[in-house]
Amino acid sequence: MDKKGQISVEVILFLALVLLIVLAVASYIYTQNHQNNVLTATRLGADNATTELGMKNLSMVPVRVEGIEMTGTENVTILIHLSNKNNQIQNATLTSVYNSLISQGYSPKKNLPNFVQNLTMNTTTYGKTTNYLIKLA
Q1: Is 127 helix (H, G, I), strand (E, B) or coil?
Q2: pTM (2 decimals)?
Q3: Among the four 25, 45, 59, 63, which has the fewest Cβ within 10 Å?
């Protein structure tokens, strides 16, 4: 029996299996990377806002971003925890987050033009739509 070509078929099957695994893992990694990019832009926007508020108003008690919490997979809620929250701080923080997301290429929507209460954003990756709600806790 002639066994020429048997090794090449096995190699092709092995490479096809490896490629299939790599593609499956890559789609998961891409989705997680996308969510991390949104979270990073949110964090930078909130940090920039609190820093700017402290620099413009020296008599103001410093405000810190104490944490950011993300929950959900298709409907993602991002909560920004601040050490102090009033209307001025809330508006400045969410406006800065809005500008940070815009600079990263996203298209968030402000829900109210004069006073920002939260931000919403829809993104699509691999045909899957993710809805984001960004607000202060």
Answers
A1: coil
A2: 0.79
A3: 59
